[in-house]
Sequence to fold (258 residues):
Amino acid sequence: MSDLILRNDTEASVTRLVLNSDRNLNALSDGMLAELSVQLDEIAADTTVKAVILAGAGRVFCAGHDLKEMTAKRTAVDGGKAGFIDLFQRCSAVMQQITTLPQPVIAEVHNIATAAGCQLVATCDLAIAAEGTRFGVNGVNIGLFCSTPMVALTRNIPRKQAFELLTTGEFLDADQAVSLGLINRVVPAEDLQNATMELAEKIAGKLPSAVKIGKEAFYKQLEMPLSEAYDYTGQVITENMMLRDTEAMIETFINRKK
Fold:
């Protein structure tokens, strides 16, 4: 196994980012967040990458933040307050990098995704999980309400179910996660990597400029009132229609139908 805490395994037009720090259960440590930010910036600028898979090596997908590292920040003069603010701001920035990334991001989840790890799943555009995977925002069990993970979670699942998870610290199983809309589907563990790659390659086969335009519009229109969303997406789809590649593909489709 590589010594890198974040591996980049690129195959053709699909990049597979692998959280590779099993010693702390792939925690979103200071180092992991820094590596993710750098890699996401590089991917955003790489037009050869059409889709991204985010996976975890070892025992779990991601168990959230590194509590030992966080506790060490308390030795600072301010008791760690500045360090905590910095950590959560950088984590939030990485989550937003995923949302604004031109390429769709698929979470490949196994065993456990808790706290900020669950936030990571909720932030990704798509998610496939292995059978037996559990999801939780269970910081409340140690006296820490998962306030930042709550942002992504409440944009994925109904509010009452989200609030119950946040206040009880209980887990969702994979089937419950599908039914609530947190993930797209569940597959046998041995099929997980193939299933995510199959989905990534299907997306990678589409016109990248159209997918990029569509992903950006998808998130923007969600925050708009209905009439404003229609006005905005009308402009977006017009921009899409003006692309030369779109024009060519539509012509090909019409001629094939003829």
